[in-house]
């Protein structure tokens, strides 16, 4: 590789581990690593992150002191200027970590963003999205969120809430309350708990015995039942697809992306709800956007560090 | 004025007239003009537009041959690259007009955009929106549309459909069909016809005689009845406010703007539906966005040429 090629490290900080990648400007991944982490709120923990960056650079055959950019994504609400306003699922002193990184790599441009936004940017850049245009990636998991990429870059929004479509109303008639206090949010149907709830509703309506569900977010059990032809599971997955389609149709008339990407743990069940989602989307989307592709994500867990690296490269 | 100040002409093309303004880089309006127009599809018609630009520049004390930029907004679907794909309400040969303008003003950068998008950009720049951040301006009139401004510039979307929130579903239970073929679109409630329909529904439910409505889009009659305390008109306006709030809450979780602006002919009735809209928005919006301001537009018919000029200045 040409030594003049711009290179960035993407650091994807999760609740239990950090995944890092050394990435060149065109998206070539030169090296990756993964380390377990505890709380990220001490000089010792920050030093370990720097050691990781050093080791990664060495592994990729470059001097960490010559890195052009470092991108960091975290599971929390991050404003456009990189300020973290909320990170409920992790112990993280982001200001301390970024200060340490800036001191250790003064030559590198540093960018910070939300993890779902990083994944969306990664998929837009190198995965199922659109590199230069608009991509909206929906992440379906324990919660439901999205990253909104416009003109090849991801937007945070005025309060870091761009892409919070888990709380988009898709069912004004809903009587149960979402965690957020509202009723009828997409997350009430398209999260792991949401799918299980839909499934239990279908079983109750039919007087059918539900299959064994191991825990509150065991959506896999419902997907497997649907694959096996279980009528109620099939219907629950179809309803998930319908609600997701309603949400995507609302997003389409707002930002009209070039592509939708569906990712997150629940996207593993795309075979059970994707067809219903696509069909219903074409029914309810405005005509100009009916052919906008909706594709499952393709980068898996690499999307985060790739998107973080991209964000940092774009800030150069 | 310093002769080195960058200056643009904004040309707002409507169905029956063209409004133009000579605008300096900080938004100072140096001159305006308005001319009636017929079809814009002949050399003669294009020449008249150029004459208008010349006269406007002269009126503003500058040489038209030294204009830095020209922005043109049209009532149709315009892609990011300035291509017009649909303009149902006007006879317009946009390619011919832009060719003529490019030949007449070869030194000027030329930008083309949709009229609702221009109005949104104008309000973001100099009116009720946010100049550098995100603004979504909803235009309520015969139809319902919006312009979505991100980072101080307006987006067109992959198919020119960004901001087409007139076709955002706000009522999944609706049985009547919208012009677009779907059911429950915002336009079915928040357009002039929509408000009249809501009003007639309220009258029918109460067995009350409706006030005189002069024509199919005479929303003014309903606003005036509401101002006079007519119970059914008050309720119809409140329902309009509720549906608008639902749509804005969906937009908020997608792009999280700094401000919402409500414009168009129907915004003259803001006093009758604004309070209901604000109150319901705070009930249904995600918590991070509950305090996002929703304000009536403040530039009136000047928003279009100001936004067109701004777009052209941003392209320099």
Automatic annotation (TrEMBL), chains A, B:
What are the protein's GO molecular function terms?
A: kinase activity
**Which top-rank group of organisms is this from?**
Bacteria
* Protein name as catalogued: Glucokinase
Provide an example Pfam family for this protein.
ROK
PROSITE patterns found in the cross-reference section: ROK
Family in the record: Belongs to the ROK (NagC/XylR) family.
InterPro entries given for it? ATPase_NBD, ROK, ROK_cs
**Which keywords has UniProt assigned to this entry?**
Kinase, Transferase
SUPFAM superfamilies, per this entry? Actin-like ATPase domain
């Amino acid at each position: 590789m040409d030594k003049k090629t711009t290179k960035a490290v993407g650091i994807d900080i999760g609740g239990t581990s950090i995944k890092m990648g050394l990435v060149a400007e065109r998206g070539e991944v030169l090296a990756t690593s993964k380390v377990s982490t505890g709380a990220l709120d001490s000089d010792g923990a920050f030093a370990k992150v720097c050691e990781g960056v050093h080791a990664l650079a060495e592994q990729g055959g470059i001097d960490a002191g010559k890195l052009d950019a470092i991108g960091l994504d975290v599971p929390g609400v991050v404003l456009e200027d990189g300020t973290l306003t909320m990170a409920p699922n992790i112990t993280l002193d982001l200001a301390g970590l970024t200060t340490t990184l800036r001191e250790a790599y003064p030559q590198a441009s540093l960018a910070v963003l939300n993890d779902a936004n990083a994944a969306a940017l990664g998929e837009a850049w190198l995965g199922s999205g659109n590199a230069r245009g608009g991509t909206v990636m929906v992440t379906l998991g324990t919660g439901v969120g999205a990253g909104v990429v416009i003109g090849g870059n991801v937007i945070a929004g005025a309060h870091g809430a761009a892409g919070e479509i888990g709380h988009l109303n898709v069912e004004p008639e809903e009587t149960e309350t979402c965690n957020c206090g509202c009723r009828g949010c997409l997350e009430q149907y398209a999260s792991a708990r949401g799918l299980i709830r839909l499934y239990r509703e279908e079983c109750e309506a039919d007087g059918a015995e539900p299959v064994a569900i191991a825990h509150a977010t065991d959506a896999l059990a419902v997907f497997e039942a649907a694959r096996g032809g279980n009528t109620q599971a099939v219907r629950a997955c179809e309803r998930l697809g319908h609600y997701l389609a309603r949400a995507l149709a609302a997003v389409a008339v707002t930002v009209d992306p070039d592509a939708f990407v569906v990712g997150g743990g629940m996207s593993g069940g795309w075979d059970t709800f994707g067809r219903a989602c696509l069909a219903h989307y074409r029914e309810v989307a405005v005509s100009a956007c009916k052919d906008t592709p909706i594709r499952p994500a393709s980068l898996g867990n690499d999307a985060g560090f790739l998107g973080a690296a991209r964000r940092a490269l774009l800030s150069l």
